Amino acid sequence: MNDASTFADLLEDVALQLSSLDPLVETPEAIATNAASVIAEYQRLNTAASESGQTAVQQVAEWIHAMLASFQDSLPEAILELLQGGQLFGWIELTAFALREPDEPSHLPAIAAELMSEAWPEPPDPALLENLLVNLHVSSQPTSVVVDDATPTQVERNPLAWATDIHPELLEAYLQETPGQIAETARLIHVISQGDSTIEQRRHAARLAHTVKGASGVVGVQAIAAFTHRLEDILDLDIAPHLSKGLGKTLAASADCLETLFEHLQEGKGLPDEYAPLLADMDTWEQRLAETAAELPPLAPMILPDFITQSGNAADDSDAEDLPATEQTRSGTNHLSVPLETVQRLLNLAGELITSTSQIAEQAQLTIAFGKQLQQQDEHIRQMLDELSETIDQQSNHLPQRSAHTTVATITAADNFDQLELEAYNDLQSASSLLTESIADNRELTRNLQQQVRQISEQVYQQQRLQRQLSETILRTRLIPVQSLTARLERTVRETCRRTDKQANISIIGQHLQIDTDILQGLTPPLLHMLRNAVDHGIESPAERQAAGKKPQKALSRYTLSKKATKFT
User: Fold this and answer.
1) Which residues are CB-neighbours of 268 under 8 A, at least 6 positions away?
2) At which residues is Phosphohistidine found (predicted)?
3) 194, 249, 250, 198: which is closest to 227 by C-alpha?
4) SS3 string of 219-253?
């Protein structure tokens, strides 16, 4: 079974057997039977992967098999919970697809997402996941090569640089998903450092730290992986009694450092100065906590009693109420990441469409003016025909009155009137009547044409209105709230205060103001520089302030953001 296609067939068969099991059985016997079937299928997958030389798949299968075996006797319901969620066979199907379609890059991020799902009781080791993804990559080295050999060299060169051989799809997914996870982790750690957190918030922060650690390990960013590993270990311990003894300050500084690490990663910078001292400080605290405190109670199984789930939901609701309105809205809204180049291209196309429609509107106005000129010309011709008809009628009055027995010959003989002249007169009168009727028909056609042109003009105006709305909507996709910068401004103040041993806070008004992305990015460096200078050079030390009769903590001047017309202040 050395062929990748043959092994993919076996993977699909295992996934089919797992997906065919009923996870909703209720009797203890049926639950135990299905749980045993799941473990048996993973044992079969483990054996087949070993025989086919698929070491990476075998390691993942062994990890899951060991986890399932630990639940078999004590909590088989947890196995069926994973089965119902699709975690047990989803990654297997995707691995089969990756083996069959080695040139398709989208399978690798999907496999990583499946194995890093929070539904797993124990997230995978980053090295295990990295080994699987790299070995499935079409341009990767053979499975016999030890993937970790290149990692130390990369770490020694720049711990904040991702691996050079990382797949672009994996890197893109990491850069899109990790910022939000780090921001939420930092927010929770700040809450925890103040001593106002719940056990669930600490568990959630630890899980997020573990997720960031795993994702960073996969892409080779060892500095962030090591840092979040320390945070996770500390959050898993009983830290409440030590927050007021200095641990709270360490956690708050670590939360700020974590966000700074990712910013430096995006900007291609090195490690921040506070990284090494904080890492050593966290190591010291971890040793002290391990000696004096017990670990937190283990995370509850996946199937919980109703009263626990209801309490958890109530706690989640209360936490949601504490969040800002924008955060609640953001969590319930689907977002799509679109490159700025695409948005700019849409704006250009919308502008060209508006210009084209304006030209059509001008042509419609010219057509309406031409129709009015045509109507005036028809009126002039009608007046001339009226004069011609009047002249013909005057000439007809000079002819003798005809009786019932009067003939043309009699008229001609009585008045010496030429018969050919009389016939020509009759033809002229007939032609005048026909011409008058044609002009009347032409007038009606002109009116219809003008009405049609006016309707077209109205539709063009409606189209212009819709196009303006389209242009404004596309333009709004470039707008982001100032609130997205607030956390970074506050973090800059905290970091500067720690560096200078001063105390200050900042208040920002107008955080919900929407600003163009390029403008906000251009404002960020000067704002940060201004805040650093304000703390460094504009505020005295706490001792100096107390000696002068002032409060130790200085409230920085309020920063009010407003927008009038096209100006931002």
Assistant:
1) 161
2) 210
3) 250
4) HCCHHHHHHHHHHHHHHCECCHHHHHHCHHHHHHH
Please state the rounded mean pLDDT for residues 317-325: 44
80, 86 in Cβ contact below 8 A? Answer: no
φ, ψ at 365 (rounded to 5°): -65, -40
CATH no., domain 479-568: 3.30.565.10
CATH number for domain 341-400+407-476, candidates 1.10.287, 3.40.50, 3.90.320, 1.10.10:
1.10.287
Per-residue confidence (pLDDT) for residue 17, from 0 to 100: 87
Interatomic CA distance for residues 209 and 378, integer angstroms: 84
Q: What is the DSSP string of 514-556?
A: EEEHHHHHHHHHHHHHHHHHHHHHHS--HHHHHHTT--SSEEP
In 3-state terms, what secondary structure has residue 455?
A: helix
Question: What mean pLDDT is predicted for residues 345-349?
Answer: 80
Listed in sequence order, the residues at least 6 apart from 136 whose beta carbon sits closer than 8 Å to its beta carbon are 56, 95, 98, 99, 102, 107, 108, 111
Decide: pTM greater than 0.70: no
List 554's β-bridge partners, or say none: 504
Q: What is the mean pLDDT of residues 285-296?
A: 71
513 burial class (0-12, 13-18, 19+ CB within 10 angstroms)? Answer: middle
N-term to C-term CA, the chain:
69
Collapsing DSSP states into helix, strand and coil, what is residue 283? helix
**Residue 457 CB neighbour total at 10 angstroms:** 17
d(CA 295, CA 302): 20
At residue 303, the pLDDT reads: 39
Closest C-alpha among 84, 86, 70, 136 to residue 108: 136
Query: In the CATH hierarchy, which fold is given to the domain comprising 146-303?
Result: Four Helix Bundle (Hemerythrin (Met), subunit A) (1.20.120)
Helix axes 168-193, 483-500, angle to 10 degrees: 60
